[in-house]
Amino acid sequence: MENLxxxxxxxxxxxxxxxxxxxxRSEGYVYVDKTRQMYKLIQMGNPYFLSRPRRFGxxxxxxxxxxxxxxxxELFKGLFIETVEKDWKTYPVLHLDLNAEKYENRxxxxxxxxxxxxxxxxxxxTDGADISHSGRFMEVIRKAYEKTGLRVVVxxxxxxxxxxxxxHDESLQNExxxxxxxxxxxxxxxxxxxxxxFITGVTKFAQVGIFSNLNQLRDISFNSQFYDLCGLTxxxxxxxxxxxxxxxxxxxxxxxxxxxxxxxxxxxxxYFSGDQQEGIYNPFSxxxxxxxxxxxxxxxxxxxxxxxxxxxxxxxxxxxxxEGVIASAASLSDDRANIRNPIPMxxxxxxxxxxxxxxxxxxxxxxxxxxxxxxxFLNFVMPFYTGISxxxxxxxxxxxxxxxxxxxxxxxxxxxxxxxxxFPYELNDRSERHYQVVFYLVFRLMGQFAETEVHSARGRADxxxxxxxxxxxxxxxxxxxxxxxxxQIDEKGYLIPYTAxxxxxxxxxxxFDAAERNIGxxxxxxxxxRI
Length: 531
Known about the structure:
The chain is built from 22 helices and 13 strands.
């Protein structure tokens, strides 16, 4: 595989934020060869739809397809497709990229479509006077075919961007949907003049009404043949990173193997089908980590899921169920969005991924793909449930962790009480489940050594925290007593899984006073049965 980013002795140039295949190849950026997968799609010839999270390489993929269909053979030197393609042709390509605009009103979308149509009309010498956007689109396709003698290639990038931008405004959504439905529906009527059609987006929910007429559109979002069409595999990272993996390791004072393991922990774990054999890494984060020689929350910091969190709250979804939630295959692939079920959109947006697949019941178990997404998401939602700012939350979490590492449970619970006391007034009249969710968030944000709702043979402990010297088992009672909570730990055998562990076992029973909306009494009891 040729990789222009390897040329010379200087540092590798990673295409972070670069979506132009031509720029990437002509200016010496690292390119991971995806043309084998693309060529398979091209040979199959179907109109395609692909859903992938933002910044996952969809735009670069369409740019690569555009260069191929424009016959730019020189850009593919050393890549797989050069070895198999012998008959390079220059097809007319209509590339529509909806990613660049904000679409705050109907006029924004109309201006965008008008500008794009005018560009095509000048190129193919058509007259768009006094006809609709969809009529002009049809005329451009027909004339491009007649002028070149070759069928037309249509590439639509981020088709759902206007609808995602207007998620909070149902009236504006309907206006956007009306415009886009008429525009995209042309692709069915123009089938006789089309060579290849590929449409990408983040979500599939917005297909309601838009693609309903495109019955021939093949959704490959869950197709295991094309799971690695976007994103990176472990082998692709190792084959294309050269000495940068060593630099990443050295800069973080770890071995190369440990650096590879940390890349996996932070950025791997995306599964897009039930029978996918290996995880896919987030390309945006991996390239940033290699370029900067450090680990960071690159993908999460590049965009915030505010509308998803608002959807969770509006539907009163129990946040504790996100890890391990079961979703039917139909709910994730159906184009009929159910506003009462936010999980499909959260999955499609990249905050959940497939963990396992039940073939008998055709259902998926979902969970966070990796540490970057998990802790980024939980940190982001915390202010929505507590009213405590994102800047103040890490202060609390840092002290929670330190206090338990030191075995100081009293200080931990006193600080947890202060944490609840800081909630603004409007959040102090929430349901019992709301406070259970807050407990869940606190313990999950404490990191890898904290677990919530831990199953034992006879029950489920509210929280288990493991440090170097201690294992803490917490049980919370709402409007009960700390004694009852402590007794439940013994009755349900929550300590049994840890009896062979040499660390000190500490049981903590806590009462939560619903009237006060805060922690009441607590009892701390060290297990002495092994002494």
